[in-house]
Amino acid sequence: MSTTVWLIFSLVCGVISLGIGLYLYFWVKKQDAGTDRAKEVAGWIQNGARTYLKKLYAALIIISVIMSAILAVVYTIDGSGRGLTTALSYIFGAVCSAIAGYLGMEVAVRANVRSATAAAKNLSDAFNVAFRAGAVMGFAVVGVATIGMSVIYLATSDPQLVLAFSLGASSLALLAKAGGGIYTKTADIAADLVGKVEVGIPEDDPRNPAVVADNVGDNVGDVAGMGADIFDSYVASAVAAMLLGASMNDPFYTVLPLLLCALGIIASIIGVYLVKVKDDGKPGKALNMGTFITTGAFAVLMTITILVLPQIDNRFIWAILVGTSVGVIIGQTTEFFTSDEYKPVQLTAEYSGSGAAITIISGMSYGLISIVPSIIGIVIAMLVSFYVCGGNADFPMGIYGVGISAVGMLAISGMIVSADAYGPIVDNARGIAEMAGMDEEVIDRADVLDSAGNTAKAITKGFSIAAAALTVLALFAAFVSEINMALAPHGRAFTMEEVSLVNPLILAGIFLGAMCPPLFSALTMNSVTKNAFEMIEEIRKQFREEPGILEGTVTPDYNRCIDLAAHGALTSLVLPALIAIAFPLIVGFVMGPKGLTGFLGGAIITGVIFALFMSNSGGLWDNAKKYVEAGNFGGKGSEAHKAAVIGDTVGDPFKDTAGPSLNTLITVMSLVASTFAPVIALYHLIP
Amino acid sequence: MSTTVWLIFSLVCGVISLGIGLYLYFWVKKQDAGTDRAKEVAGWIQNGARTYLKKLYAALIIISVIMSAILAVVYTIDGSGRGLTTALSYIFGAVCSAIAGYLGMEVAVRANVRSATAAAKNLSDAFNVAFRAGAVMGFAVVGVATIGMSVIYLATSDPQLVLAFSLGASSLALLAKAGGGIYTKTADIAADLVGKVEVGIPEDDPRNPAVVADNVGDNVGDVAGMGADIFDSYVASAVAAMLLGASMNDPFYTVLPLLLCALGIIASIIGVYLVKVKDDGKPGKALNMGTFITTGAFAVLMTITILVLPQIDNRFIWAILVGTSVGVIIGQTTEFFTSDEYKPVQLTAEYSGSGAAITIISGMSYGLISIVPSIIGIVIAMLVSFYVCGGNADFPMGIYGVGISAVGMLAISGMIVSADAYGPIVDNARGIAEMAGMDEEVIDRADVLDSAGNTAKAITKGFSIAAAALTVLALFAAFVSEINMALAPHGRAFTMEEVSLVNPLILAGIFLGAMCPPLFSALTMNSVTKNAFEMIEEIRKQFREEPGILEGTVTPDYNRCIDLAAHGALTSLVLPALIAIAFPLIVGFVMGPKGLTGFLGGAIITGVIFALFMSNSGGLWDNAKKYVEAGNFGGKGSEAHKAAVIGDTVGDPFKDTAGPSLNTLITVMSLVASTFAPVIALYHLIP
Lengths: 687, 687
Hints:
homodimer; mainly alpha; 20 helices
């Protein structure tokens, strides 16, 4: 059996995955879209989301043209003759990621109103609509990604071109994730601060001029952004392992990542198919069950496959199993720090009685402490997969083990994305039910669905950060081997040993790299405060100039807020995008491969730490507020509640803007470095 | 001229420094201590401070006994015959640091009331009392430290024993800095939240049961803690360079750090002597002038000395000059992010009008951005001092250049500490003036003195973090050379090249190390919230049970709050101390020198980043509040003010507990690693 058979198998699985996604898409479209009022409300959200997506993709086209031109020139000048193919692969990656995101978003903005309408009948139907819509995104992401990678490798057998494909996908992910994160939190904070706090109208009240922007934000941030993010990690983990495999000159090791993707697709189909909720059932439990079943199915399929295939070392089974179990365990510990069943959330809620300052300090402290179990988990996964694959005697094998363990973790992304995309859909469904004036019973059912989405999210979030950490570590090693391969024809080498931690040039690189993730998160958060401040002024102005809005007789001008959010988010992306793309290139061409290696190492470390800290602090504050609202420490309207609301608002950009974008940032930086490694290896200022 | 002459010269300078400190101490004591009421109030603070210091030193004795016993055993078993001397040097270091801290504190708790009393006459006298009292601390710190190091090296010629001396001093610094930081912010936050916010009585009102604890906190946190902190950095930078000099087998290079300390003492004497304020003068300007004069004097003395001495390479002049200039520049950029004359503070104040959440997000964002110029400065200082000393061709020379540049920066600590210790003294003077019911005019003068202290602090803080960063980088290299020297007799080597950044074991170490500073700051901040929460309950209880307190007819029970703060701070130190001391040992003995090298590298990176971020965010919030209070965006009592107060309260533990303790944490970790390096090099689990 040759690698071609494996590649065709993974291509077929990709096509099946995309096919299932399209089938579910049309199934969701066929469902009842409800009353005219519901359709009207949903129409506002659809239009707002499409407008933003169009602008986002326009920005992507600009970046793609620039980047592909640079790639074409660089890889023509260097004589490798790969100029055109590299540029095309880059564009192909960006387009594939955009297609998956577009599909996911299109179905999400239809599923929300259909899920709300179904909730008028029963919980089970409402859940089905939302979850299957989430699965459209899930299957589209893994399907398109696997098709893209398989096609390129089948056609060219060149992992370098898969790398360019990955960079293309990551460029979109960076824009989608950071831009969507800024958009959604701008609207969310502004809507809450004026609506709930100043004027005292409920969440999702149609009198609030920012309410549509807020609901659009859920779609562009949590659906399209998150889909692009996982697409990016998924492809990056595969390409890192492929590059490491290629550097060992083993065609089977090079293709194994794509085979694992294919097995993950099969496991995800099984898992998604088995997710069912009865009318009195618990949707949160069903989602988690789906994740566990998928993980189990993947573990079995993977073990059998590797045992059967003579070309693959059986030790990889352990690397993958360790990685996957650690991922699940990390998800569970995240739960400890962010669920209201445990001390961190409860104590923070209790302290809130003494004022918002204590809420903030307490939440930040627990967020910082929460990085400990995850980091220990990542360290264990890395060391075990390295040593179990014999890294002590055979360094490249050990490093490949780390890479393949990341691929194993991300292989089940189909199920993970399905459960994750479900969340914003039911969140929107709840909003539409409220805005369209549906019955209390419907809103209650939507609430049940909504809270299940939050539980699922906590677990998948920990999982995905851990997976991204392992991925960038593999990419890091891939970068070094890229440099080495570029120097080989010139009779020089860049060995692992050369990158000494004690070398000031490398330490300088580490410091510069380590400073990027905090800087990046600060810039995105600053954009949120700046844009929210402008939108707050706009909402106040509308209330002031048109008193009919608050009386409910005049429809507010939703489009002003939508435009403000979209424009603000996109213009705010320029600086963060420069940090991600230009900064590693500057460091590389000035400080050389050594400085750039340090730079990547530094960025990975603080990237992981800040991603964990910010996501978990944000989740903790969110639930501390809900815990107080559930009647503890004075309940709604108490001093503790006011303080907890402030904590929650601080947490919003932490957990939905800055924190989760950091994954993408460090992936993009690593990919940029690897893609340009062959040129940087030969041309740089400091020797 | 032999090294003995140099050593005797530095010993003499140390003795002169201590002598001047003692002279100023008795001068301050002779000043008028004011009215009976003022003496009474000052007496409460003195007693509170002494009680705490006694408890702190008792805790230090326990740690010293354990640590010196371990050192004695380890260095007896290993056959080096250094068991007893190492243990004694360790204890000597702890005692020396304690003496300096005790002197500084004793003078501070006398100078506060005397400065307040002098303020009844004029500004100039009040300034003189406070600044000379600060200078007691300044000269005591550098004097005792220089005496200690010179004596040990004169007697033994063994830099290893100076290392043990440094570790002893650092152990105290860790307790004093973290404990004092927790103490002072517990009392500060509790006093403010109940006194100012709930009950509406002014700052420093004698009716507040926590008011004495709050003023004691300024002394134990900002005077004793800060003194121990600089003592620690000062000695650590010297010992790092001494070890690097010794590893090059050059006796003159080994002793040069002590010579620089001596020159720094002379420069500080000149600088302190020239600090003068007229009655209508600006104390802040005078303090900064003193720092600039000292820096200039040191630069001249150092340049002449190195040019004259044939044994010392002239290139070191450049390394020291670059380090010192970068330190001053970093101080100035810190000013940009924390002064109300620039945009970050002003915008954060403006955003406060939209609620506390925006205040917090904005302040955090700017705090994260503020790390950029400092990190670039540190990188430049490191690279220039490395390359200018020829590190490219001669690696050890380059590294020694980095170490000596850190020594140069810290040599002027005498002046830095004097200006810094001045701050809490005048802060206290203001408190006593208020509590003792002095005239409005006196309080106004005390306010002028107080705000000058804040300006000086911003600059010295940036300076000291930069110096600490260079110091730990030198210590880091010293650690590697320690490991190498320990392996040499066994025919093995641990070269710089062996510590590859791409090795999973080292990456694992980096991750574990990088997680420590955030964890440490979270634990100390958590202690502040927990203890403040308890103290808030106590204050509320006193107000509730004894209505006479608020009427001003009954004196509150100050001692309950003092005890709560002291007990809370000391019991909270156990976990942080374990992180600092036990964690590097565990990593070292399990993961070996490679893992430990990574661990130190990781800790240094996030340590510097979090120290800068937390210090600067805290300073920014503090001044944003003051900016609003000065009448901007609604002034006192407005919504913007309420939000700014919450920001300031969050910033308190950031800038005075967690942030500045991180310097000490990474120094202690590096010293522990270096001290135990000879044993860890030979005995560890993972090969």
